[in-house]
């Protein structure tokens, strides 16, 4: 079920399904996109195996994922999908949602904040302060004051 939903998601860029299925699909699809961002042969084979390798049409979906979707997600470090609740289905009143790929570029504000935090981490290594040996004699003087 997840393989079919993820195939449809990559092919059509959005899928309308129940909220439960959308929540189950999100980590599965995001993991496949993360593999696709690596771009090596091993990752391509893992994605192909996850999407049911026996079907010829799925090879075109894997190609679409590696050539179009993964480069669009290169700047993004996660959160490749978005779930939007759209109300209940008419027949059985099941809660419905649209799960879609987030293809918009990362906003410049978020990119600047991430670069600043990375620069701060690499430029200033944290040195551990040395512990002074004065604590032990202080305890000894307290013990002598009690006598």
TrEMBL record:
GO molecular function: structural constituent of ribosome
Gene Ontology BP terms: translation
Low complexity bias (residue ranges): 119-141
Region (Disordered): 114-147
Gene Ontology cellular-component annotations: cytosolic large ribosomal subunit
ATP-binding listed as a keyword: no
Name of the protein in question: 50S ribosomal protein L17
Keyword terms of this UniProt record: Ribonucleoprotein, Ribosomal protein
InterPro entries to which the protein is assigned, alphabetical: Ribosomal_bL17 (IPR000456), Ribosomal_bL17_sf (IPR036373)
Alphabetical list of Gene3D superfamilies matching this protein: Ribosomal protein L17
Lineage top rank: taxon: Bacteria
Family: Belongs to the bacterial ribosomal protein bL17 family.
């Amino acid at each position: 079920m997840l393989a079919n939903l993820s195939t449809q998601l990559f092919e059509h860029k959005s899928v309308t399904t129940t909220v439960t299925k959308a929540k189950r699909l999100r980590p599965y699809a995001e993991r496949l996109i993360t593999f696709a961002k690596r771009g090596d042969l091993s990752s391509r084979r893992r994605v192909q195996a996850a999407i049911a390798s026996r079907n010829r049409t799925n090879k075109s979906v894997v190609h679409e994922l590696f050539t179009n979707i993964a480069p669009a997600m290169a700047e993004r470090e996660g959160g490749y999908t978005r779930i939007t609740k759209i109300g209940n289905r008419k027949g059985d009143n099941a809660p419905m949602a649209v799960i879609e790929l987030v293809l918009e570029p990362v906003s410049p504000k978020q990119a600047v904040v991430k670069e600043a935090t990375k620069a701060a981490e690499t430029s200033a290594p944290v040195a551990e302060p040395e512990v002074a040996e004065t604590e032990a004699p202080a305890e000894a003087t307290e013990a002598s004051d009690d006598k």
